[in-house]
Amino acid sequence: MLSTRDLVAGYDERTVLDGLDLELPADAFTVIVGPNACGKSTLLRTLARLLVPRRGSVLLDGKAIQELPTREVARRLAVLPQSPLVPEGVTVADLVGRGRQPYQRWWRQWSEEDSSAVDHAMALADVAGLADRPVDTLSGGQRQRVWIAMTLAQDTEALLLDEPTTFLDLAHQVEVLDLLHRLRVERGRTVVAVLHDLNQAARYADHLVAMRSGAVVAAGPPREILTAELVREVFGLDCVVVPCPVTGAPLVVPALTSPTLADPAARSSAPTPAGTASGTDASSPTGSTGATPAGSENALAGSYPSEGH
């Protein structure tokens, strides 16, 4: 669906991508990984026509994307950039509705088709129950699902997302990636995302693209290309790669950087915290005897913030 030919792109005087050739499969979840400043976001921005190539081209079904009408591109590609700003006070339904802008004309305003698309998008993203809530009152995971619902309301065949799990806790990261996976499997959407977590990429991706210094080092199914040698070449990290006990996908385990990490004796022989008497139970403020020193209640009360602060 999306591909690049001899792509050169960058910012000001700095070239980030230099002669990049890449094929991204349709109806697949592609994840782009690599170290910081390797060109991942630059590639995604160029694919989305947010950044004009200096040379070469991005092709959408074989046609140069820069030559296609903007409205046509907006009906085929939905883009979610890093940390988009939420307009103050806008509700979930209003924000999701903005995904219908590519279908608006001066002679064709809001229609039943638009309402149906918005309702369907909110249901898919599991945010229908939040429709009347201001977006800026939602949790990080809820807010990210709302942004994804807006891209779904565009009713495009492909979604491009730049670090959609950034700033989310682990539960919300899984929540967002599960949603993108379902969209690919159940709705046949093409998903292209930039991720930092290599193990999440291996778990969810059908197609993995590993980049370093503006070039593609390897591309293909994670189970075929993700090896300890590739991780060392791309990230400069020694590791072992084992099957995930849950999914069977490759799981990257960093090699030991300090021998004491694997030495329980070294961990148990950590220095005794100051003020802990030898021979007492350091896990208890009363020591191993069970006796409570006079005045210790006040001392403990002064050591910790009281509830409510």
UniProtKB/TrEMBL annotation:
InterPro entries: AAA+_ATPase, ABC_transporter-like_ATP-bd, ABC_transporter-like_CS, P-loop_NTPase, Siderophore_ABC-ATPase. Keywords: ATP-binding, Cell membrane, Ion transport, Iron, Iron transport, Membrane, Nucleotide-binding, Transport. One of its GO terms (molecular function) is ATP hydrolysis activity. It is found in: Cell membrane. Residues 2-238 form the ABC transporter domain. SUPFAM superfamilies: P-loop containing nucleoside triphosphate hydrolases. One of its GO terms (cellular component) is plasma membrane. The keyword Cell membrane applies. Pfam families: ABC_tran. Residues 261-309 are annotated as: Disordered. The keyword Secreted does not apply. Residues 269-291 have a biased composition (Polar residues). It is a peripheral membrane protein. GO terms for biological process: iron ion transport. PANTHER family: IRON(3+)-HYDROXAMATE IMPORT ATP-BINDING PROTEIN FHUC. This is ABC transporter ATP-binding protein. It comes from Micromonospora musae.
